[in-house]
């Protein structure tokens, strides 16, 4: 099988993954790409070691009677190849994500 450029083999972790969702209420003009860039930046800047993560959009919701705001919900699955992560480890990361979303996107965590 031919190797794909830019891809390398990565062994599966022997430790379990931890998953959490986060919902952010934002101005309707804020793009999903802005939210994704902010969240990924927060994950990469966090000092939890050599982590692997998968970030998946769950929903983008806008209420019929509120045309000024929308809510974006993201699902984060994170695993460390070095140790078992606890919910408190990931909760602190989610708090960091929410703090950055507040300062960079004027978002509210819901």
Task: Please tell me about this protein's structure.
This protein is α+β, with helices and mostly antiparallel strands. It is 30% helix and 30% strand. It has 2 helices and 4 strands. A 4-stranded antiparallel sheet has the order 2-3-1-4, covered by helices on one side. Strand 2 and strand 3 (69-79) form a beta hairpin. The longest helix has 19 residues, at 87-105. It is elongated and about 45 Å long. 15% of the residues are buried. The model has no long low-confidence stretch (mean pLDDT 87).
The main pleated sheet reads as: 4 strands, antiparallel
Tally of extended strands? 4
Shape: elongated
Structural class: alpha+beta
**What is the percentage of strand-forming residues?**
25-35%
Number of helical segments with 4 or more residues: 2
Q: What's the end-to-end separation, in Å?
A: 46 Å
Q: Whole-number radius of gyration?
A: 16 Å
Q: What strand line-up does the widest sheet have?
A: 2-3-1-4
Provide the helix percentage: 25-40%
Weakly predicted, low-confidence segments: none
| Mean pLDDT over all positions | 87
Helix-strand sequence: EHEEHE
């Amino acid at each position: 099988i031919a190797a794909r450029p830019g891809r390398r083999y990565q062994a599966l972790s022997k430790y379990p993954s931890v998953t959490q969702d986060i919902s952010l209420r934002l101005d309707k003009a804020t793009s999903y790409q802005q939210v994704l860039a902010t969240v990924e930046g927060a994950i990469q800047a966090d000092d939890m070691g050599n982590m692997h993560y998968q970030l998946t959009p769950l929903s983008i919701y806008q209420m019929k009677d509120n045309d000024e705001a929308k809510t974006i919900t993201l699902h984060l699955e994170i695993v460390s190849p070095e140790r078992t992560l606890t919910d408190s480890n990931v909760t602190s990361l989610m708090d960091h994500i929410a703090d950055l979303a507040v300062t960079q996107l004027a978002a509210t965590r819901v």
